[in-house]
Specification:
CATH topology of the largest domain: Immunoglobulin-like
Structural class: alpha+beta
Helix content: 25-40%
Distance between the termini: 63 Å
Largest sheet: 5 strands, mixed
Order of helices and strands: HEHHHHHEEEEEEEEEE
Number of strands: 11
Number of helices: 6
Number of domains: 2
Strand content: 25-35%
Strand order of the largest sheet: 3-11-10-5-8
Shape: flat
CATH class of the largest domain: Mainly Beta
Amino acid sequence: MKAFCVGIALMLVCQSTAMSLLRDRPNQKVAHSFLQKIEYRDPYNKVGADLCPTCVSFTGQAINTLLNLILQGGVVGTCGALCSALAQKTGSQALGEVCDLICDIAGIEEFIKLIEKADLDPIYFCEEMNLCPVKDDGDAKITQLSVTPKSGPQGQFSIDYTYVSVNGTGTGEIVLEVETVDHIPVVNGTQELTKCTKGSFLNELADAGSYSQSVKLKAQPDPDCDPTQGPCEEWMPGNYTVKIAICNGECGSKHPHSQIYDEATTTFEITENNKTN
């Protein structure tokens, strides 16, 4: 019965973070999601444990809360006590279940040590837990980055990219940024952004080869955005810049097993909406 409950928890955590591994932060605003991965061609010979994406998804949601609970003390004597406190703090029984599973693998003392050592880097934490494989001789070269349509009114755009790897890639992430015309800070996924909308996707260990992916950009105002809580992105007519980075580990991380493989940039235009009398 416990195994069944943990299985349900794994599915809930993975589904809730399928679009982003961006770490949780205190005092978040309401999230407005503009980027969504809509196509993923799995590596032909993908390597690595199944728990890697689950660990990264869980850690991205929970590491900040766990660190605060550890620093506060009083509930860190056992995995059960710490993970129950996490479930209560976040209101998510699923997070508590996955916390129990991962904490039991390392033991409470090692689990706490790695949470503190990771410094809010989910991928590095999961590598140190031996749940995500490490590959430091990987590489990736972006060979194509485009936006379709290249020019058009507000609506759905498709960001398509292809990269080639000679040696294969390590556990890392692909980060997409869209610099907006009005430079209004946007909230996407679980991270507040400045002057752009941003999406980050886990890129699992893979063999050498060519990989193509597509991300849907919903370039139109979010009807759920509350202007009393902050500026709302209007997707005004003009030229927009799209940036992509493919990384080993978390992009920009100073931890071991982290590097930027390659970066690329392109542009697209949002035109005036057609008006009818």
